[in-house]
Write a structure and sequence with these properties.
heterodimer, A: alpha+beta, Penicillin-binding protein 2a (Domain 2), Beta-lactamase, 3 domains, five-stranded antiparallel beta sheet, 21 helices, 23 strands, elongated, disordered N terminus, B: mainly alpha, three-stranded antiparallel beta sheet, 14 helices, 3 strands, 3% strand
Chain lengths: 636, 382
């Protein structure tokens, strides 16, 4: 094409016209394209987009169900729900460009680090339309500010939600556990069960083991929202939520308080770092009190625990989050002699009147296995051996039984197996049989190790709950019960969904007379003065002490030790003292003092304190002097 | 058919009496199309006003204010003898570059780009004024070189004129407006008779330089282009607006939901509705038919602009008409295309519809100059 030059008379104006025409054509094409596109979007696909616009506003959202409550056996509320403000973000409604400003504002209002908020928003990358929780238990004035600024805070929602309140806090924290925000891993497994990404879930304690019952069923509703996420109206309720069931625990808060007070008293007198007291009804397996110290305030978790508080709990060397009653295992010490004694009687090594000589030590080759008082007690029958807790006596029984028979009787009493209590993280314990030692160390149990196993040392390991359960079986005449923590499950209307049913693990394959002998022997532990002035308590108590060495020897060649006391109280009435020969005891107790290293048995003092309080005996025979630091052995 | 006349010197007064045709040559159609579009823009300001539209400071009252200012600007520009623009071309040019430099110095940064100048609480985009100024400067330059319109020198000269403005706008950074300058340049050159061969070669060179250009783009500009290619890939950022915009438009259907009834926009799902996405609101509330009416009014407007340019029989008139209509059609393509999901998200306004004083006043000045050309044409009888 010839270049057209304006102003030259000979230039054909038609050239200019062609350019105008091309220009017009370009305009026509542009407008045509736009019109076609709009026709497609608005007329052809109009219905589709109208639906999407509706979806933008109408969403199905879950209706949370009220979590079931938790009561003690007397109907005292332990865990209730109270309203609290929560702040959440729907990432899809938070435009990228405004994100920094919104995060910064929320961070300063809620006093939450900006990095935490960003992390929360990005945690579930695939679920951008679902709400994520930024803060729980927000003060009402802060909640109001956020609602008022909702225009500047797109995607941010403030809701009223019920949160847990634990009425007794730390006192029952190890039993109740707590609820917390569902983790990404938990969500991956539970999403199909209807869990939401900002949901609460029972993390430990019965809150965790009874999560399904407590949670109930979430409902669903259609709601209409505006762009800032505020619900304009509820269009329709699709499913009504079904409130969760409530739990009635076997626990009695009063007994729990007595048990905690007794344990706390001892920890203060002697500066114990950890301790356990469990009280149980031997007839039914109901746990009346379960205290593990140190404990923690589970309301911290219910409110949404701060990182600082959580780190403090996790880094505490005494591990307050661990339920030492059943999640850790320790050498049971002389409490284990019950197993050795019953085994020897049942296997016919001895009869109740057989006398065995006890000296300063028993020798295997050149190794000497010492009596705990390094002198011996002369000839003893089973009652005497048990009452004096004579090591040399029980070395002889254990040696006679051998590793496997000893393990057999331990297993019979429930050692080395979980009791099946409905609490999380129960430890199994260790019963060293030849088979066990082969699998772990590739050798049989040495004769010396059998001696140790016979007195609850060496490889033996048990939880306080296992020790208590074994003595409960002794007290009730030979029925090993499953310890129970939840008595009944109640529907929201109060009807009983699951009533209480005692559960038997097994009937011990032991002659009732043997158990009667051992109950009387346990009584002799008290009457012989082995437990000092416990005999002065105006109450018939039978039990067995234990002193379990662990750790590393000190400069005087002494090992630190835990002290144990497992006991039961035969039924009694006015003018009718309890009779340990009977199998009618309704209270068994175990006390465990970790690393006690006291002159006398700290656990016995704890039980003493508990019993005189529990039965309101009106006497105080506790002897704090016995809880002085020093060495149990050194004192004798 | 008569040849084009050589540009005459302007009369002695800036506001001259039209030679023979007088104000009867005022193009009433042009004014009507413009006012109709501006009124539709006011309607959108009404519907987009959050809270009471009549409150001081609302989108609507600000729209009314700018409407009045635009009428004044239009009248002044129409009365002003456009031929003086030749004389003042350099002043206009330096002035507009000055405005762009000022934007960079005292401009307000919004969404990562420094485009707005805030005076007394009112933000204003100087780059809008600079666009119209550039049309005038280019028209004046081409008129001055009318003997050599087809030469490479003309092409290069015009390019060099536009280059500083292009660069200054890119620094803000405002890719969209920079491209508007290119559209103006191409429109003015093409219609006034520049060498097609050289233009094609320049285009080829630009295409070859594209990879380099990509690397110069800011991250968010690259992001916008990438998100444009697949809006669903980034439903959070720019893609969020594109998706919401399409939902708004689509749900408008044939006749729309009625003014102020936009579900998307009424509930704020569509972000920055008051500015870049105002056309989406219009399409949702007035439907496909409403959009079509707007397009027809624009076609009418551009048609009048081109007719005036054609009738002016002057290089200045033709080039100005070409530059102005190229600007309008390009902005339509980019803004309406963006709203409909055909174009990347850039901050380019749709003249009249997008609220913004700078855009409205600038287009009013441009149309005023067209009226000035119309009034002072050689053959008013046409």
């Amino acid at each position: 094409m010839n270049d057209y030059v304006l102003g030259q008379p000979e230039s054909p104006r038609v050239g200019l016209g062609a350019r105008f025409a091309v220009f017009g054509l370009v305009i026509a094409i542009v407008v045509g394209l736009l019109t076609t596109r709009l026709f497609y979007l608005q007329v052809v696909q109009g219905g589709y987009y109208a639906g999407l616009a509706e979806d933008n506003r109408q969403q199905t959202q879950p209706i949370r169900s009220a979590r079931g409550l938790i009561y003690d056996r007397a109907g005292r509320p332990l865990a209730i729900n109270i309203p609290s403000y929560v702040v959440r973000i729907r990432p899809a409604d938070l435009p990228f460009g405004e994100r920094d400003a919104v995060v910064e504002r929320l961070s300063s209002l809620l006093d939450v680090p900006a990095t935490d908020i960003i992390e929360a928003i990005d945690r579930y990358a695939s679920l951008r339309f679902e709400l994520v929780r930024i803060a729980s238990d927000v003060p009402s004035d802060v909640a109001r500010i956020i609602v008022e600024e909702s225009r500047e805070l797109p995607g941010v929602e403030v809701d009223v939600e019920e949160r847990r309140q634990y009425e007794y806090g730390a006192l029952v924290a190890h039993v109740l556990g707590y609820t917390g925000a569902v983790s990404a891993e938990e969500l991956a497994q539970l999403e199909e069960a209807g869990y939401l990404n900002d949901d609460q879930i029972g993390k430990t304690g019965v809150e965790a083991t009874f999560e399904e019952e407590l949670r109930g069923l979430y409902g669903a509703e259609h709601v209409e929202r505006d762009a800032s996420g505020r619900i304009v109206r509820t269009v329709q309720i699709v499913n009504e939520p079904q409130p969760g069931a409530s739990l009635e625990l076997t626990l009695d808060v009063e007994v729990q308080q007595q048990a905690e007070e007794a344990l706390r008293w001892a920890t203060e007198v002697v500066d114990l770092q950890r301790g356990v007291v469990i009280v149980m009804n031997p007839q039914t397996g109901e746990i009346l009190a379960l205290v593990s110290l140190p404990n923690y305030d589970n309301n911290l978790f219910a409110r949404g625990i701060s990182n600082t508080d959580y780190q403090a709990l996790v880094e505490d060397p005494n591990r307050p989050l661990v339920n030492f009653a059943l999640s850790e295992q320790y050498p049971p010490g002389s409490t284990y002699k019950l197993v050795t004694a019953v085994g020897a009687l049942e296997d016919g090594l001895i009869n109740p009147s057989t006398q065995l000589e006890t000296g300063p030590f028993v020798e295997i080759g050149t190794y000497k296995y010492w009596e705990w008082n390094r002198r011996g007690f002369g000839p003893l029958d089973i009652s005497g051996g048990f009452a004096h807790s004579s090591n040399t006596y029980f070395f002889q029984l254990a040696g006679g039984l051998g590793a496997d028979r000893l393990a057999h009787w331990a297993n019979e009493f429930g050692f080395g197996q979980r009791t099946g209590v409905e609490l999380p993280a129960e430890a199994r314990g260790i019963v060293p049989s030849d088979e066990w030692k082969q699998s772990v160390f590739g050798q049989d149990v040495f004769p010396g190790e059998v001696f140790q196993a016979g007195i609850g040392q060496g490889y033996d390991a048990a939880t306080p709950l296992q020790v208590l359960n074994a003595y409960s079986a002794l007290a009730n005449g030979g029925t090993l019960m499953t310890p129970q923590i939840v008595r009944r499950v109640l529907a929201p209307d109060g009807s009983v969904l699951r009533g209480f049913q005692p559960e038997v693990i097994r009937q011990l394959d032991v002659d009732p007379d043997t158990l009667r002998t051992m109950r009387l022997a346990a009584r002799e532990v008290v009457t012989s003065g082995h437990t000092f002035n416990l005999v002065d308590l105006p109450l018939v108590v039978a039990g067995k002490t234990g002193t379990a060495e662990f750790g590393v020897r000190d400069s005087q060649d002494r090992l630190p030790f835990h002290s144990w006391f497992a006991a039961f109280v035969p039924q009694f009435g006015p003018g009718q003292p309890g009779d340990p020969a009977q199998t009618d005891s309704e209270l068994a107790i175990v006390a465990f003092a970790y690393g006690a290293n006291t002159k006398a048995n700290a656990a016995t003092e704890i039980v003493k304190y508990f019993l005189q309080d529990h039965y309101d005996l009106g006497v105080d025979i506790t002897r704090p002097d016995l809880l002085q630091r020093g060495n149990f052995y050194g004192g004798n | 058919m008569s040849a084009m006349r050589v540009e005459r010197a302007p009369s002695n007064t800036l506001i001259s009496k039209p030679e023979s045709g007088s104000w009867q040559s005022f193009d009433i159609q042009l004014a009507l199309f413009a006012v109709a579009l501006a009124v539709i823009g006011l309607l959108m300001a009404w519907t987009n006003s959050t809270g009471a539209p009549l409150e001081p400071g609302s989108t609507f009252t600000r729209g009314l204010m700018w409407f009045a200012i635009a009428i004044v600007a239009f009248s002044l520009a129409a009365a002003f003898d456009y031929r003086w623009l030749r004389t003042f071309a350099w002043a206009v040019y330096l002035g507009s570059l000055g405005l762009l430099v000022m934007t960079l110095i005292i401009g307000v940064t919004i969404n990562g780009a420094q485009r707005w100048v805030s005076v007394g609480g009112i933000t204003f985009q100087f780059s809008e004024l600079a666009k119209v100024a550039m049309i005038a400067v280019l028209a004046a330059f081409l008129a001055r070189r009318q003997q050599n319109l087809g030469s490479l020198a003309t092409l290069v000269g015009a390019g060099l004129l536009v280059a500083p403005a292009f660069v200054l706008v890119m620094i803000q950074p405002d890719l969209g407006t920079a491209l508007v300058f290119v559209a103006i340049l191409v429109g003015a050159l093409f219609i006034s008779g520049a060498s097609l061969r050289w233009m094609l070669l320049a285009f080829a060179a630009l295409v070859a330089a594209l990879p380099v250009g990509w690397s110069i783009l800011r991250d968010y500009q690259q992001q916008r282009i990438l998100s444009f290619l697949d809006p669903t890939s980034d439903p959070q950022g720019a893609g969020f607006q594109v998706i919401q915009s399409q939902i708004a438009i689509g749900s408008g259907g044939l006749f729309g939901r009625g003014l102020t009834n936009g579900s998307q926009t009424g509930t704020d799902f569509l972000p920055v509705q008051a500015t870049d996405f105002a056309f989406a609101v219009l399409l949702e509330e007035l439907g496909f038919v409403g959009g079509l009416v707007v397009f027809l009014l624009f076609i009418g407007l551009i048609w009048r602009v081109l007719v005036i340019g054609w009738r002016s029989e002057s290089v200045f008139g033709v080039a100005f008409a070409g530059g102005l209509s190229a600007m309008i059609i390009f902005q339509m393509l980019v803004n309406a295309g963006m709203v409909a999901g055909m174009m990347p998200v850039t901050g380019i306004p749709l003249p009249f519809i997008t609220h913004g004083g700078g855009s409205l006043v600038s287009i009013a000045i441009g149309l005023g100059v067209m009226q000035s050309i119309s009034i002072r044409r050689a053959h008013p009888g046409w």
